[in-house]
Amino acid sequence: MFRHHRYSAAFALSLALSCLTPLAMPQTAAASQIKLVVNKVPITSYDIAKRTAFLKLQRKKGNLRKMAEEELIEDALKRSAWESTRIRIADAEVDAYFARFAKSNKLTAAQLTQVLGQSGVTAQHYKEFIRTQMGWGQYVRARLAAEKRKDDNDITKKILARGGEKPTATEYILQQVIFVVPQAERGSRLAARTKEAEAMRQRFQNCESTPEFARGLMDVTVRNLGRKLAPELPGDWASHIKGLEQGQTTKVRQTDRGAEFIAVCRTRAVSDDRAAEMVWDAEDNASGQGAETLEKILAELREKANIQRK
Length: 310
What we know:
Helix content: 40-55%
Number of strands: 7
Strand content: 15-25%
Distance between the termini: 39 Å
Shape: extended
Structural class: alpha+beta
Radius of gyration: 24 Å
Number of helices: 12
Oligomer: single chain
Strand order of the largest sheet: 4-3-6-5
Order of helices and strands: HEEHHHHHHEHHEHEEHHE
């Protein structure tokens, strides 16, 4: 199943706020003209100006106006696709992401709104961009799930193609230990907390005794992460966990939560249908088949669309 979302790079945009200078403000909405129509949805020169400003804010290079037009066409196709289903993205979801994005750039939502306004993007344009990509992500997942259900014998066919053998995946039962450090105290406490975490890691015996041991420590959180097959390990931890045996731990890492490590409670080899499906999904994504599927969906939408240039 396709899992990578094309919009993740845009969502991970890091604003260069320290060197940001206001861009030329785009024309007003009142002075705008319709330049494109996608499935009866108009795209104005004002829309294009805001998306061009957005691309400048991302430090994109090239013919930005042409890139802006193509992005807006694609956004219109995506939005018409998911709005034709039951998918709805609430304002509260969009506002919550907007606030998290602002916080990640050490801004309040109001300050981010001001920055976007000064840059000619506007908060409303960025929020509609967020809404479109959220809806598109849900649409893609739903469509791929539906297509997968059409072929109930998919796993059986792959097993037969491999001589009747299912691929095997390692299943991990994991426990996470976090020595919490508030953001405001990272400079003064993170190094000391990292040493405390390392001391506990070296004394680690088993997952059953960890909660009791942590109970005597200040601001230590123990989380049971449950069962994770190797292909579904958290991306930022996967390389640290793979290959570990029962009773072993990762090294202590400094994260936005503080200092932490993950312990392997138990492992076992699994070769059931779910494990096989996840291994094949990982192989498909690694070979680029997931991206190809997404491009195919977009190409189908574009082929069926009515796009007019004024």
